[in-house]
Specification:
Blueprint: H1 11-28, H2 30-39, H3 45-58
Length: 64
């Protein structure tokens, strides 16, 4: 998916991209986390909400 399409991407098309990116960041460990942290502002409510949803997924608490 081209980066320019992210703003209009559906959940179904965006989820596999996010999954692959998170998987790769996990492989990179702290280096990946620090790179992501540099992009996140302290008052980014959208990021905070997304992080909460991802934490729910990671804990197995969110299923269809």
């Amino acid at each position: 998916m081209p980066f320019s399409n992210l703003e209009t991407a559906s959940a179904e098309s965006l989820a596999p991209v996010l999954h692959a990116a998170l998987h790769r960041l996990g492989q990179l460990g702290r280096e990946g986390a620090v790179a992501l942290a540099r992009l996140v502002a302290d008052d980014d409510a959208d990021f905070d909400e997304a992080a909460e949803w991802i934490a729910d997924v990671a804990s197995g608490g969110l299923r269809e």
